[in-house]
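dumping this here before i forget
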Amino acid sequence: MNKQTLQQFIRSNGWAWPGGYPCALLMADGEVIDARSARENYRLIRRETGKDWTALEMFVHWEGAPLYCAHSNRPIESAYGIPEDELELETGEDLAQFYGPSVRI
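structure:
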């Protein structure tokens, strides 16, 4: 990742423009970090001190469960939330809809 892209990510506070979609920074070890952690550790990322701090790319987190920053554990929410087919069935009504009316709860 070049210096300019990293600086744009940090200055955006983790939001894509236009659109205002939440973004994260993908690191070489497969983890993600948020813009605040990237700002706090800018020198480590620029120097690429080991695989842990090598930034590969910035990406928009479109949908799915929130990602968690590997450095601070802050949530990075998705733009469109969790798709319905990924939601866990939590209520008896949902179970009845999933398994059919013959299920007694």
